[in-house]
Amino acid sequence: MHSWAKNRTQERRVYSNIVLIVLFILAIFSLKGFFDVYRKQAESKRGLAETKREWTALSEREQVLTENIKDLETLRGVEEEIRNKFSVSKEGERMALIVESRTRAMGEVEEKSNWFTWLWGAIFPAKNP
To answer: Has this prediction a pTM greater than 0.85?
Structure first.
């Protein structure tokens, strides 16, 4: 019977209020650590996705700039860039001005119709004097 009493004493020590409180506090700290690591992992995933998007955009920009540099390495490319940026022309060149029709220039707008105006026009046709 002595072993039973000894086991009972050990059981009281293990399940005492102080031991349970200490275990509860350790569990809380462990959970806090777990959630901190989880939050950092989520932030890292977002950062990785953002970095991949930026890298893709920069790669595309690099390709465009490489093409522009190749164009500027030729005489024709340099001439075209100067004409675009500074609106200049060679000596002896002339400019042609293309103007749209007069009615369009005066602001005449084509009227778009919806199903209701089409139906109204079908039921009550416009009278031409």
So the answer is: no
